[in-house]
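Box 3.1 A note on notation
Throughout this textbook, protein chains are presented in two layers. The first layer is the amino acid sequence; the second is a token string describing backbone geometry. Keep the layers aligned when reading.
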Amino acid sequence: MSGGLRIAADQDTGVAVVTLDRPARLNAVDLPLAGQLADCWHALRFDDSVRAVVLTGAGERAFCTGIDRDADVPQPNSPYMVDDPLLRIGPKTNDLWKPVIAAVRGMACGGAFYLLGESDFVVADTTAAFFDPHTTYGMVSAYESVHMAHRMPYGEAARMALMGTAERVSARRAYEIGLVSELTGPGGAVEAAVRCAAVIASYPPEGVQGTVRALWAAQQAARAEAFALAPSLIALGNLPAQRQAELFAGRRAGGFRVR
């Protein structure tokens, strides 16, 4: 695929590497890329030669920075309906039960958590940093916070969501709290993730996929209930789009601490 997504499959190992390929935009997701991700997961469901997947971002600066601020996302004129294109970009949402390992280099923030939340585990290098900018710009962190509350201790998820752009969780801290399962040197995350994926892909796929489905089921009911509240919380809590844009335009560079 072109225009924002690359897929490279190794027939010998059974591992596919899916790369968000918009480094000039810090791998932010626009509407075409959102559609390509959904198409990618659907295609991998039917490709029996692929038994495990590594998901990463191109370049050194970011894994993914969420929704592209320049993307035109029309919204229904109703507080009961929120059209969020990122809800359709994850592998589990698209009924893919092959294991997906995220390999993170650089920033992972905001809507990146839709992808991290639907990955089975996360490998990161020491340049990785995690944060959620929503509250800084007058927005409710709803879906993102639900995903992260299932991946890290509640207090850590709450702190990250509430501190906004004032603080970034370092790769080391993310490893200490369990968000990241393996920490590598700079540039080593993809290689380490592929190594794990190759081991998993060597096992009988039925048992692997059943295990992925069972692990997801352990959290799925609570996640679904929380997601049901998200549209109304966003409609009630978000500032108008113009005011959000003003806050975003006036953001301070370098005004954060790393923890």
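The mean pLDDT is 92. The chain has one domain: 5-201.
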